[in-house]
Q: What sequence folds into this?
């Protein structure tokens, strides 16, 4: 290798390392900027959460207002006032009842805790004796003592923050109610302004967004409330039948846990089963299997059917939405990350189907056919049906082309076979003719030798 080739090789290596360094530096700077942006936006997360809760409250109350205004004939302003007054009164009653029940339960727990602790330790020792096998000898009583100490530390630290948290929650609640009232009262005007801001060419997308948000959040909330209500009824039945203490706390914790998607149902079983095992251990063999069977039916039969029309997502996407939502916004994100992801999933499928149609020269004809066949279909459903039909027609055309090629190949093979047969027959005829000529030549030679 001469000197010029070595110099060219060194230049190529330098350019390669320079490119690698630029790429790494670009990725590093991009990550720093993303982290800074997330940090800045994190300061507005509380404001975004207040706006979201206000919109959610307006969204939940809007069907009631629409029913009073449309079916009963109450003026819309009066209907909004009646609904919000009833909501405030019901919320105040529930908060008062919850506070008094929690206070009574805490007071009862404080008075009876020494005896309750002895009962818990006795039950845990019985469990230790039942599950001990060989070297496997768990110390459940010691584990409970550690959990108790941790719980006491958390409770002590939380009690010091109760006044500030209470004031902040009440202030946020007032702001949420006022914002939701304005959102519900001026919903038509707000939507009209948003529609004017968006170009007319995106009218279908705006319509899809409004309808998808309503269907996803409405169906999701309805499904979660139904499941939590069933779980609450089951827990209350167990508490009343067995006469368990701390009934309100057990039912409230179980219902709140049931509202959490995916991970909530197993957590909702812990309070009734644990309290039954401590205060009524003779019934644990009946209560635990019964609750597990009902929970299995709820999770595997009822829940998928309740959420199928609302979400229409694969279980993997449901889990991803839960994890991402909890990472971004904590408990609220875990609760509402799934319907948000459902809305994004609808738009993703819509864009993919549109791209499929744009690659087809007969898009308008296919859309018109689908529209005539399904006049009540929504825009995203029309696009999905048209894309499916285009894909099916393309597959059928590909299959027909393959069949034509196969037929052409078979015809060509048959022609080659026929030509080969003709060639063989011709060769056979040539061979016969040659044999005749050879025989004639032999006869002529023999005649010449013998003479006339």
A:
């Amino acid at each position: 290798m001469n000197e010029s080739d070595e110099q060219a090789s060194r230049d190529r290596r330098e350019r390669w390392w320079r490119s690698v360094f630029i790429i790494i530096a670009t990725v590093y700077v991009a990550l720093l900027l993303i982290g800074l942006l997330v940090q800045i936006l994190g300061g507005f997360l509380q404001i975004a959460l207040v706006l979201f809760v206000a919109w959610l409250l307006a969204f939940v109350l809007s069907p009631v207002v629409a029913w009073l205004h449309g079916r009963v004939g109450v003026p819309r302003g009066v209907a909004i006032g009646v609904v919000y007054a009833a909501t405030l009164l019901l919320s105040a009653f529930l908060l008062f009842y919850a506070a008094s029940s929690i206070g009574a339960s805490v007071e009862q727990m404080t008075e009876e805790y020494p005896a309750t602790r002895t009962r818990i330790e006795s039950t845990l020792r019985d469990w230790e004796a039942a599950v001990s096998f060989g070297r496997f000898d768990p110390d459940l009583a010691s584990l409970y003592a550690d959990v108790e100490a941790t719980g006491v530390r958390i409770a002590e630290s939380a009690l010091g923050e109760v006044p500030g948290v209470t004031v902040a929650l009440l202030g946020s609640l007032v702001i949420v109610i006022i914002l939701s009232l304005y959102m519900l009262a001026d919903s038509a005007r707000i939507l009209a302004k948003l529609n004017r801001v968006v170009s007319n060419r995106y009218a279908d997308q705006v319509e899809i967004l409004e309808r998808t948000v309503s269907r996803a959040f409405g169906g999701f909330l309805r499904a979660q409330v139904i499941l939590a209500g069933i779980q609450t009824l089951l827990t209350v039945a167990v508490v009343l039948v067995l006469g368990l203490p701390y009934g309100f706390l057990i039912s409230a914790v179980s219902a709140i846990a049931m509202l959490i998607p995916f991970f909530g149902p197993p957590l909702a079983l812990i309070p009734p089963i644990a309290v039954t095992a401590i205060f009524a251990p003779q019934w644990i063999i009946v209560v635990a299997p019964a609750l597990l069977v009902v929970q299995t039916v709820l999770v595997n039969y009822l829940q998928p059917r309740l959420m199928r029309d609302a979400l229409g997502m694969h279980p993997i996407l449901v889990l991803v939405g839960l994890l991402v939502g909890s990472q971004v916004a904590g408990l609220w994100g875990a609760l509402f990350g799934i319907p948000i992801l459902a809305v994004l999933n609808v738009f993703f499928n819509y864009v993919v189907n549109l791209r499929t149609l744009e690659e087809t020269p007969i898009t308008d004809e296919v859309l018109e056919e689908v529209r005539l066949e399904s006049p009540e279909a929504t825009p995203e459903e029309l696009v999905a049906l048209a894309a499916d039909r285009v894909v099916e027609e393309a597959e059928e055309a590909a299959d027909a082309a393959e069949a034509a090629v196969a037929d052409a190949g078979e015809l060509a093979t048959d022609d080659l076979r026929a030509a080969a047969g003709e060639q063989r027959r011709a060769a056979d005829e040539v061979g016969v003719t040659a044999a005749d000529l050879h025989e004639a030549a032999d006869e002529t030679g023999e005649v010449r030798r013998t003479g006339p």
Observations:
- Residues 445-449 have pLDDT under 50 and may be disordered.
- Residues 44-197 form one domain.
